[in-house]
Amino acid sequence: MAHSAIDHFLQENLEAYLQETLRLCAQPSVSATGEGVVACAALVEEILQNHGFETWKIEGYGNPVIVGRAAGRSERTLLFYNHYDVQPPEPLELWDSPPFAPQIRDGKLFARGAKDDKGEFVARLAAVDAVRAAHGGALPCGVLFVVEGNEEVGSPGIARFVQDHLDLLHCHGALWEEGGLDFEGYPGTSLGRRGILAVELEVETLSRDAHSGSAHLLPSAAWRMVRVLASLKDENERILIPGFYDDVKPIAELDLELLRRLPDIEPYLRETFGLRGFVGGLSGFELKKAVFNPTCNIQGITTGYQGPGTKTVIPAKASAKLDFRLVPDQNPTDILQKLRAHLDAEGFTDVRITHSDYMFPYKAHPDHPLVRLAAQAAEEVYQKPYRLIPLNGGSSPAYAFAGPLGIPVIDAGVGFGIENRTHAPNENVRIQDFLNAARHIGRIVDGFAALET
Amino acid sequence: MAHSAIDHFLQENLEAYLQETLRLCAQPSVSATGEGVVACAALVEEILQNHGFETWKIEGYGNPVIVGRAAGRSERTLLFYNHYDVQPPEPLELWDSPPFAPQIRDGKLFARGAKDDKGEFVARLAAVDAVRAAHGGALPCGVLFVVEGNEEVGSPGIARFVQDHLDLLHCHGALWEEGGLDFEGYPGTSLGRRGILAVELEVETLSRDAHSGSAHLLPSAAWRMVRVLASLKDENERILIPGFYDDVKPIAELDLELLRRLPDIEPYLRETFGLRGFVGGLSGFELKKAVFNPTCNIQGITTGYQGPGTKTVIPAKASAKLDFRLVPDQNPTDILQKLRAHLDAEGFTDVRITHSDYMFPYKAHPDHPLVRLAAQAAEEVYQKPYRLIPLNGGSSPAYAFAGPLGIPVIDAGVGFGIENRTHAPNENVRIQDFLNAARHIGRIVDGFAALET
Q1: Is the N or the C terminus of chain A less surrounded, counting Cβ atoms within 10 Å?
Q2: pLDDT in tens, B78-115
Q3: Which residue has the higher pLDDT, B263 or B222?
Q4: Cβ contacts of B216 on chain A, cutoff 8 Å
């Protein structure tokens, strides 16, 4: 049976894939600073070629995007999205071994990128090799890799890259960069992510800060920004921008059912964040459902004097960074227009929107065959139920593939991930999790050709 | 006649007083950093002794307070408040000559402290010497100098210093540190200052910042602070703290009359601050009267991410610095209690007031004989009417002398002051203004003994 052949191959060749992970992690590739990214792109291309992939290095979307393609017996093709760039390794003094001198100890591989996302990438290559070996040297389905180099700086070019390469990227389903153990060690995935509209608002009421002894005369930018923000959301968390909720879909019955099955995360959140209570005083099932509420978050406010002590100034300028998390089928460009219209209607014509970026919401159907395949495979590997989260509160550029390519994307449920210290010092992956991830992915590649979609 | 003898003495001895100013300004005395303050206190004491004053160096209230006393033929005593500390001189590169290497050029004396407040102090010494000379070597009234060293850091110890030295400071009237030409070059004074209550508010909703993908779950300190601030003042500038206006006195008829006589500062403010409009849309006489409105100003807000671009965080903490400017007879300690009660009543029991400091409002009567004497003297020296401003929007520790000593204080109308670049690079005083200030002050010292109070 193919599954045991896959497992056998992976167990036998584990050391080689760990060495490959070490080699890739030894190459810095910090997109925030540019350190090593060009060399890392070349290394990724070489590695894909070594594993039998035809490759393309595509420029013009930030750091090079590396595409790898391997044909299969079926025309059906599975796309893997990964990235070769990493977060900056600082603060260096908190690492027990240097971030770009990877080291295996205590059953774990330590390096910047060990988890996010170089380890995940190599685990997938291992899975593909294992499936190929289990099928006598030929893949049962086509496999496409898209390995980009700007993920840690927000993937600014990826949506345009997809739009420009629809033929090259033609496929029937995709697995996003990572996955798939939750805080209790259960495998699972979210079926979608909320969209996001991030904006920066600025207002200037004076050409320079004034003495607060004139506060009865001179208009304050700080007060004006408080008024602007207060106009956006009421005290019951209802967003007051006219038309904001127009495109919000009701929660489907099946999603409600999935929400009911989810574990109770209240104790975990209470402890992690020292909470006195949740937003809106919600608890229980109401709190689980709240992910289907769009939000308006203040990322930060900048105005006036922020040093020690007192400074008697009237701030001339104020700015606020906001993000709106959007649910299906809200459209961030539409919400941006409605925000501007709201500001104008409230008399805040002097408040400028100086920056905006966005991602669309995206959600797969819980009954999609690819979801069922990932669930089945995970339950076989982990011997635990695969938990389906109907919607994740965050956002990802997975929508940029799902929409234009017309495919389902399993956004965060295939790979490894628990206590990995992602983005932090001593990032690591347990060898056993690496192996299990490859076994899980191998089963999905093995079964993908036969899916009825 | 005494006035012409005073003027003659000052003209003859001007060079010596300028040299004394240069010597005093050459001694750094930056209270914010401590640079040179001890040496400067000693120099001030020496200078006072050189001018015939008995002196006290009083410790325990921050940098030493130097008191100088000279008896007069009358028991009536006039107090001069001055300070020997200066603002930091930075940015140094914007000075045409070094801040502590004083220089006379183009009819001006350039140095840090030339205006604020070393030049003012020496001009007063010159005036006292001139009066003494004009009266055959004996002062007609007693003169007290209080020269402190913490003015530029908010005079934190001065109120307690006065309370502890009521006997030493016994006097019948006081002139505050500076004066006296307004933006159009007219002499004048404000008859009082608003009080101030400065507070810092802090709120913490999470033990650390969280990802904004959880904004439907986790309470935001930024939003909470926006709600707190919005609860303090309505959109018509009415402060919503219960009882806030209880002790506000109506504007007296005489003060309304003085307000009517004041020049129109709207064009000046519009140009200086690039205004589109004034607070509350006020103009004309309503705008002049607004100084009698207490205010609630936001000095600054600190919360969340303030760097470039976007960071998807829910801020765990938020703080805001506020100042309330208070009018007679509001009491800042009473307002602080009312603010706390308001926060509690609104459910903001978790919002802490982490810092507070304050000054009381103070206002002299426009018909007080000392005010009339200062006006008469100024009109003789400047040949222009002395402008009386019933209330200045700012605050000063003059109240700390006026109340406990039971005396009128002319807060800002005796001395020099126009285009002096106070607190800025190239601080300077025009020699002619220095001389005129000494002539004005000499007339006040000359006439003080005979005042009917």
Answers
A1: N
A2: 999 999 999 999 889 999 999 999 999 999 999 999 99
A3: B222
A4: 279, 290-291, 293, 295, 325, 393
Chain B environment of A208 (Cβ under 8 Å):
273
The pLDDT of residue A349: 98
Q: Give chain A's length.
A: 453
C-beta contacts of A264-270 below 8 A and 24+ residues apart: A265/A183, A268/A183, A269/B214, A269/B217, A269/B218
pLDDT at B453: 62
By C-alpha distance, the chain A residue nearest B297 is A215
pLDDT at B412: 75
Q: Taking CB atoms and an 8 Å limit, are B276 and A220 in contact across chains?
A: no
Contact B213 A395 (CB under 8 A): yes
The angle subtended at Cα A75 by Cα A445 and Cα A412, nearest 5°, is: 35
The tokens describing B280, both together, are 């509350």
User: 């126009």: which residue's tokens?
Assistant: B418
The DSSP bridge pattern shows strands A188-190 and A103-105 to be: unpaired
* Across A382-391, B117-126, B230-239, B415-424, least confident range: B415-424
Indicate the residue of B273, B275, B300 with minimum beta-carbon distance to A304: B300
Output the average pLDDT for chain B.
Answer: 95
Q: Which two tokens stand for residue A21?
A: 């992970």
Least CB–CB distance from A279: residue in B219, B313, B316? B219
User: Residues A433-446: pLDDT tens digits?
Assistant: 999 999 999 999 99
- Find the CB nearest A278 among B217, B295, B303: B217
Residue A432 has pLDDT above 90, yes or no: yes
Find the mean pLDDT for residues B443-448: 97
Q: For position A1, what pLDDT does the model report?
A: 65
3-state secondary structure of B29: coil
Give the model's pLDDT for residue B450: 94
Closest-CA residue of B relative to A265 is B217
Instruction: Provide the edge-to-edge strand list for the sheet that holds B103-105.
Output: B103-105, B108-110, B428-430
User: What's the CA gap between A388 and A411, in Å, rounded?
Assistant: 11
Q: What is the pTM of this model?
A: 0.87
- Tokens 């390519």 — which residue? A405
- Please report residues of B whose CB lies closer than 8 A to that of A392: 213
Domains in chain B, CATH or no CATH each: 2-193+361-448 (3.40.630.10), 195-248+294-359 (3.30.70.360)
> What pLDDT, on a 0 to 100 scale, did the predictor assign at position B1?
65
pLDDT band at A453 (very low <50, low <70, confident <90, very high): low
CB B9 within 8 A of CB B3: no
Identify all chain A residues contacting B219, using CB atoms and an 8 Å cutoff.
275-279
Q: pLDDT tens-digit profile of A241-286?
A: 999 999 999 999 999 999 999 989 899 899 999 999 999 999 999 9
Taking CA–CA distances from A237, the nearest residue in chain B reads: B216
In this prediction, residue A316 carries a pLDDT of 96
Residue labelled with tokens 């890739």: A24
